TrEMBL record:
The keyword Nucleotide-binding applies. It comes from the Bacteria. It holds the Pfam family FGGY_C. Its EC number is 2.7.1.-. Residues 489-510 are annotated as: Disordered. Residues 259-450 form the Carbohydrate kinase FGGY C-terminal domain. Keywords: ATP-binding, Disulfide bond, Kinase, Nucleotide-binding, Rhamnose metabolism, Transferase. This is Rhamnulokinase family protein.
Length: 510
């Protein structure tokens, strides 16, 4: 392979609070990433229902591709799209969108959880799909929408990255890593769990054919080329369209004995396995088996993540007391360690609004000191996240039989030095932080491998990351027994604890 310049790929990476378009330039021994455009992702509540403003997102994507054209002289070798999971848009018979997609944090799914459990008890549903119980999984959204005019009129359902891809190319498909978050995929066969859909009356023909990371997903329409200034043809390639699937590709691990924590709005804590773990113990521990790149399984637990801190910042700003994040983290670092902790897996923290008050209420309910100021609240959040990381990693190793020598923190939380240090201390394992842009890098690497810019499997892709991306290392320090005592305070769990669901999963969470 002889080239005089690297190939350039655009990664469209849509998160729950913002989207961005990144340009990755790739050669066999070089990998560079540049952010060319970032835009907000602000949900909108209409008539009591929380929606995604998906047209504003699409406008941001087009603006980002226009910026990518300017950065590359109009020539891109490919585009890949990843986003958050579970949500979808409905199209009518003409291919037009039927209303804005509903946000997964909307409360409409709460009654559907009990309705599904009446037909498929949680143990049967888990044995068939291996997915962690979360009240907003796509299966509950579809059951909640049953009989609605929108679903009755729908002829196609597209998960969010597939919807954006369809608008760019005119080609519809369902990428497998994101499809695996619907709770309608069998992780053993990597195909639809048709008995589950049939039992619940879900029409799987709504979803287009399954495609896999590396598969072609069409080329940019002529109108998109004209609007963005890109020179065609520009192929769109299916990547790990669930952003966590792309983020796990972007983990710069040196061997298989690693754990990952993909941090952002959520913390997704787990291991990369060759086969799913579908035991009853795994279900009771509320672990999920999502599909990854190259036949892998992402065995993980969802934890509330930096959403709690993001919501605290929004609340303080709305009250007229805005906080500067850097100063807040410095104050948190000086606050008393483990003074108060809450269960970061508790669904009481899923909904937006009043987050500082809800944290204070949880501390009061468990007989712990209530945080006295924003710095102490922030320390409570970060201590609680580190404690939840600790418990999830211990459970993942126990349930899978896979040991861990190092923990990789990727995503936005890799910039949070205090969270990284606390996670190393809580887990008693070295932490490697970075890259923060793991999802975009994983997205670019799958495209680059498809285009022949790089070769090999996940090990080779990760070696390139470890040799080209800046990383920070944290060694565990301090008294490990202090974390044992902190965990004991919430070990029994409270009402609705998300991953202590042995006796509670039959009931709606929230």
């Amino acid at each position: 392979m002889t080239r005089t310049h690297p190939l350039a790929f655009a990664a469209i990476d849509l998160g729950a609070s913002s989207g961005r378009v990144m340009v990755g330039r790739v050669e066999p021994a070089a990998l560079a990433l540049e952010e060319v455009h970032r835009f907000p992702n602000t949900p909108v509540r209409v008539g009591g229902t929380l929606h995604w403003d998906v047209l504003a997102l699409y406008r941001g994507v087009l603006d980002g591709l226009r910026a990518a054209a300017q950065a590359t002289g109009g020539r891109l070798n490919g585009i890949g799209i990843d986003s958050w999971a579970v949500d979808y848009g409905l199209l009518d018979a003409t291919g037009a969108l039927i209303g804005n997609p509903v946000h997964y944090r909307d409360s409409r799914t709460e009654p559907a959880v009990a309705k599904v459990a009446e037909v498929l008890p949680p143990s049967r549903l888990y044995a068939a799909t291996g997915l962690q119980h979360l009240p907003f999984n796509t299966v509950y959204q579809l059951v909640a929408a049953e009989g609605s005019p929108a679903l009755d009129a729908a002829r196609t359902a597209l998960l969010i990255p597939d919807l954006i891809s369809y608008w760019l190319t005119g080609v519809a498909g369902t990428e497998i890593t994101n499809a695996s978050t619907t709770q309608l995929i069998d992780p053993r066969t990597r195909d639809w769990a048709r008995p589950v859909a049939d039992a619940l009356g879900i029409d799987l023909s709504l979803f287009p054919f399954l495609r896999h990371p590396g598969d072609p997903a069409g080329e940019l329409r002529s109108g998109v080329l004209e609007e963005t200034g890109l020179k065609g043809p520009v192929p769109v390639t299916a990547v790990g369209s669930h952003d966590t699937a792309s983020a796990v590709v972007g983990v710069p691990a040196r061997d298989e004995r690693f754990a990952y924590i993909a941090t952002g709005t959520w913390s997704l804590v787990g291991l990369e396995l060759d086969a799913p773990v579908l035991t009853e113990d795994s279900r009771l521990a509320n672990f999920t088996n999502e599909l990854g790149i190259d036949g892998t399984v992402r065995y993980l637990r969802n934890i509330m993540g930096l959403w709690m801190l993001q919501e605290c910042l929004r609340s303080w700003a709305a009250e007229g007391h805005p906080q500067e994040l850097g100063e807040l983290l410095r104050g948190a670092a000086q606050s008393t360690p483990l003074r108060s902790v809450v269960d970061a897996g508790d669904p009481e923290f899923i909904a937006p609004g009043r987050m500082p008050e809800r944290i204070a209420e949880a501390c009061r309910r468990t007989g712990q000191p209530v945080p006295r100021d924003p710095a102490e609240t922030t320390r409570c959040v970060l201590d609680s996240l580190a404690l939840a990381h600790r418990r999830a990693l211990a459970d993942a190793q126990r349930l899978s039989g896979r040991g861990v020598d190092a923990v990789h923190i990727v995503g936005g939380g890799a910039h949070n030095e205090l969270l990284c240090r606390l996670t190393a201390d809580a887990c008693g394992l070295p932490v490697v932080a970075g890259p923060a842009e793991a999802a975009a890098l994983g997205n670019v690497l799958v495209q680059a491998r498809t285009a022949g810019a790089v070769e090999g499997g996940l090990a080779e892709l990760r070696r390139l990351l470890s040799e080209t991306q800046p990383l920070r290392h944290y060694e565990p320090m301090g008294d490990h027994t202090a974390w044992d005592r902190a965990e004991a305070r919430i070990a029994d769990g409270g009402p609705g604890t998300a991953y202590d669901s042995g006796s509670k999963e039959e009931q709606p969470c929230g």
